Amino acid sequence: MTATETQPRLLDASFASDNVAGVSPEILQALSQVNVDAALPYGADPVTAQLRDVIKETFGARAEILPVFNGTGANVVALQALLPRWGAAICSAQAHVNNDEGAAPERLGGVKLLPRPTAAGKLTPVDVHAELKALGFVHAAQPLAVTLTQSTELGTVYTAQEIAEVAEATHAHGLGVHLDGARISNAAAALGCSLGEITAEAGVDVLSLGGTKNGAMAAEAVVVINPDRVAGTDFIQKFSMQLASKQRFVSAQLLELFGTDLWRRNATQANDQAAKLGAALAEIPGVTLSRPTEVNATFPEVPTKIADAIRDRYLVHVWDTAASGNPVLRIMCSFQTTDAQIQELVDVARRA
Q1: Where a domain ends, among 260, 289, 312?
Q2: 196 and 141 within one domain
């Protein structure tokens, strides 16, 4: 047996996540352009100053941005700033912050999460009211914030009205609203709206603004939209190890994304490719879509033999088991997904 034969075969990761994609050429160029001369550290550079202006134009005159390294860091910083030490955050049970961040909000931020079971990954005012029973009860963590995920882990999207309804119910009882926007660009592109319409205009107080899943190399941010509800974010950013010394290189990525229409172009491409893939798979006998393809993830319910064939070639996740007993796969596209890649996966499924 040769050394090659003993090594595990690498699966094609093209559809595993939008994190597998590379970096937008525009962002690489932006990084190159700021990689000249000296610049003050920790956000005192001219690139970050330009980014602050763009953020105010997008999210309102009082909005402030704090660039960070990753989405988990953004969520941990934002939730700490939104909550007192005795506070807890209501979230969907399927939320990334609840399942996929290594308990970072609780371990590092000291933020208790209050997960609610949801049918489509989306919280409603009913969920908020259900958790308010603990308000004032000294033996319980106090529900003092709501955290929404846009788009959700189930590939669903909150409309501006749905966010506004949750925010209204939340604010009526003095709670704050956080939005985990790791894929907010995909949601806004799907809705055909601006970023501000599903955040500031809908009542969101603080936003985790995603860039990495949509073409950035490594750039996310905390955007404080309502400073009356959020305090000490800059100090929290520092002690949470999310303050970059050479911040111009993080800011340059966000400036290129959100200071132009690159965020929308990339997200639209990813969404369109997922819709194309889902539609093509649904034409195969025995394959159905478990839910409509709203953003850049499609969830086909497939016979086991087709699932095995796909997973023998591709790194994709079994997301659920349908009532039929068939697996439901999560297949994701990015701004780099090509028509040829889609056709190859569909051909694999057809031959099974």
Answers
A1: 260
A2: yes
Q: Is 107 exposed, middle or buried (0-12, 13-18, 19+ CB in 10 A)?
A: exposed
Closest CA to 328 of 317, 338, 337: 317
- Model confidence pLDDT, tens digit, residues 144-192: 999 999 999 999 999 999 999 999 999 999 999 999 999 999 999 999 9
pLDDT tens-place string over residues 190-230: 999 999 999 999 999 999 999 999 999 999 999 999 999 99
Query: For residues 268 and 265, what is the distance between their CA atoms, to the nearest angstrom?
Result: 5
Please report, for residues 300, 309, 315, the alpha-carbon distance to residue 352 in angstroms, rounded to integers and kept in the order given. 15, 6, 17
Helix (H) or strand (E) holding 153: none
Share of the chain above pLDDT 90, in %: 97
In a domain, 32, yes or no: no
Query: What one-character DSSP code corresponds to residue 9?
Result: P
The tens digit of pLDDT for each residue in 273-293 reads 999 999 999 999 999 999 999
Sequence-distant (≥ 6) Cβ neighbours of residue 342 within 8 angstroms: 273, 276, 277, 280, 333
Strands 297-298 and 327-332: antiparallel
**167 shares a domain with 79:** yes
Rounded distance between C-alpha atoms, residue 210 and residue 202, angstroms: 18
Average pLDDT, the chain: 96
